[in-house]
Amino acid sequence: MVQYGPDGSLDPSFGVGGVVSYSALATGARGVQVTANGRILVAGTYCGPEAEWCDAAAVAFLEDGSVDTGFGLNGIALMDADPADGSPNYEEGDGGSDLIIQPDGKIIVVGRGGPWWGADVFLARYHADGTVDLAFGDDGRVLTNVGGVDDSNTVAIAPDGRIYVTGYYTGGASPQDAYIACYLPNGNFDPSFGDDGALLLGLGVGNALAVQPDGKPVLALYTSAYWLVRYNADGTPDATLNSGGVIPAPSQAGNGDVALQDDGKILVCGLRGDSLVVVRYSADWSLGLQEFTNGSAPLIYPSPVTDHAIFEYALTNPGKLTCELIDGQGRSVRTLFNAERPTGQHREALDLSGIAAGQYMLVLHSEEGRTSVRVVKQ
Asked: What's the CATH class of domain 31-281?
């Protein structure tokens, strides 16, 4: 861990010269949260004498970077995901990927559990002092199979207390496919969400997750491109967005995290090569391209489209626009036009001949931002 001062310099009061090393977390720090009293909690995979081979763990540190020995067992809260599975230690695949602090101070750690060749989604909950919350799941733990061999990347809590987890599973159409799972505050699957508590998205890996104040989860996904996805609280796609709840994120922003501002705007951060990239969306997910002047969203018709279609949109400012058709794997299938356009409303004739039937995203972008529309090709 590294702590910086307000000016960006290393904080000499933290650890040794601003740095704390803790070698027992085999996978490094996978998630970090700070409690109201200043305690620093880190999630990871702990491999030490207290663990069964390796276990998902939360480790607590004081404000100065020293281990908080008053938390859990000498600073560590451990949980064997499935102590009754009978797997040899060397086959155990338990590990922690992220954690979050509930409003009541309880701590949820997520990751994977079970043998490495058949791991499932794993959650554990602890009291603020690191002791196990026995009222959660099965004596403090939840182990659920989502789609095959599962792993969890991150966790978020909705305003109503429901717990969302995303990551990936193997065994689907792609080597790795994203899922989102929803749990009730007691650890049970929420049957009102998706397919009895989970959605298999068939698109990328779930990297980051946040929940809006209205209860809608927002996911950042990665395939060969980057996507944002928003669902209603029941797991249906958010139809209030012109894209049907899915938009391509800027290709230069490998989605590392997603956060919500108080005004509803959405921040996505990631990497472009060796550089950090931060992108901000308005609450309607636009980045500067105006909707129709008559109040409706950008439109492509007929629907479904055939070999020729009409695309209508309006611009706030003049500029050079590129219009691309993107497939479900995030690949650009065709650049439909790349030209200067003035301010105002526009009507473009698009040539889609030779493009296979299926679902696509039509993406219009400029230096100011982008907008997108879902397309079904016959």
From this structure: mainly beta
